[in-house]
Amino acid sequence: MKRFDVDGVSIEWVGHATFRITYRGMIIYIDPYILDENPPKADLILITHDHFDHCDLDALRTIRKEDTQIVADISCKDKVPGALLVKPGDVVEWKGIGIEAVPAYNPSKQFHPKDKKYVGYLLKLGRITVYHTGDTDFIPEMESLKGRVNVLLVPIGGTYTMDEKEAVKAVEAIQPDYVIPMHYNFLPGLEKDPAVFKEMVGDKSQVIILEPLGKPKQ
Prior knowledge:
The chain is mainly beta. It contains 3 helices and 14 strands.
């Protein structure tokens, strides 16, 4: 499956942590890094943090147009001039779309320390709420999102983020209707089989495995 449609929201996994969401004719990208061929321009771009595989300046130049709105966490202040900067807990609205920044961090790894204030996003699109976790492990703050999320975009690659086992814990805590795995098979050391994750989730949530539209960078 290359696209998942639910209640007027269309979700495509371009690759790694990059998603393209279409809603009411608007094109939304999250963490543009991997792009497909001739990608449509963005109306809205969300960036979870400033690492190269989530905030790629070449990708931004490719999909950005004059009136594109960029929302980014505070680590992107110097990297993405003109972006609306957010930190965990901030809530903004853009053209009827609700955007809530939530914490994203590694409790016991050095890659994404809590004090950096990296974020994930709750994206409110009509009756559908999509949660892109950003680069994070399973964290206690996820418990408060139970019942609020329809579609969970969650990493399974491990090393820098949660692996399949932790991702299952996130599913159990959040209880989304649907879950789409990400952040695997695009960087060395993150090789995973999403079918294994789907089996581990079982009937806790409906796992949607999307085919990436882009390819790993050389």
